[in-house]
Amino acid sequence: MPKPSRTPVSEHAYIQHLSKDKKLQKIIKGPLAERVKQKNISLRLMVAIMNQQLSTKVADVIYARFLALYDNKEPTPRQVAATAPELLRGIGLSNAKVSYIQNVANFVIAEKLTNARLHKMDDEAVIVYLTRIKGVGRWTVEMLLMFHLHRDDIFSIDDWGIQQAMAKLYKLDISDKKTFREKIRSISDKWSPYRTHACRYLWQWKDQ
Fold first, then answer.
1. Domain boundary at 147, 162, 182, which?
2. Mind listing the pLDDT tens digit for each residue in 54-65?
3. Is 118 a domain residue?
């Protein structure tokens, strides 16, 4: 299994490369914020599930309530697995999200999964491995790879925000979904090996 590159990406390298795309260049306003190194990646996967289809404001409230269940400390997978489902539902999570979060916790326990193990795996291997968990889809793992495993070359083709931003920036017709997906994938291929950074610029531009 090939190991992911551990070479730090300089600001100059990804900006210079992505700026070759003249449309993308228009929305590049300096370097991106540094991604924070995470110690508890399995918890980040649970939080990603909690945050699905929620606004940032609501997601922050839910997470604060979640931490309050554990004396405002980040819980271990064993603590989450042992938490009564009704307590998790009581903080505002749906039955499905409660089940999926505890599926993650039980998977981490059963697999003896560590941060170090994930860091040693290449991008596609992480996706294949973690999507074995019921309730964890490809998009969720892509977000984990981008923001918590700090992988530089992830393109999240199913992300609605990315699709909207690219349709607007590149003036693409979204009525034919198959053709649209082919076009955005073809555009994104030119961004490699810095597709994660391109996605971040697109989200940033869309939010502004």
1. 147
2. 888 999 999 999
3. yes
Contacts of 99 (CB under 8 A, 6+ apart): 85, 134, 135
The set of residues, in sequence order, having a beta carbon less than 8 Å from that of 108 and lying 6+ positions away, is 42, 77
Pair (30, 122) in one structural domain: no
Give the mean model confidence (pLDDT) for residues 126-130. 98
Domain-located, residue 110:
yes
Confidence of residue 8 (pLDDT cuts 50, 70, 90): low
Q: What is the pTM of this model?
A: 0.88
Structure-token pair, residue 180: 């649209």
- Domain limit, last residue, from 112, 147, 182: 147
Residue 154 has pLDDT above 80, yes or no: yes
What CATH number does residue 171 fall under? Answer: 1.10.1670.40
Q: Helices 123-130 and 138-147 meet at what angle, rounded to 10? A: 130
Q: Provide the domain limits for residue 62.
A: 41-147
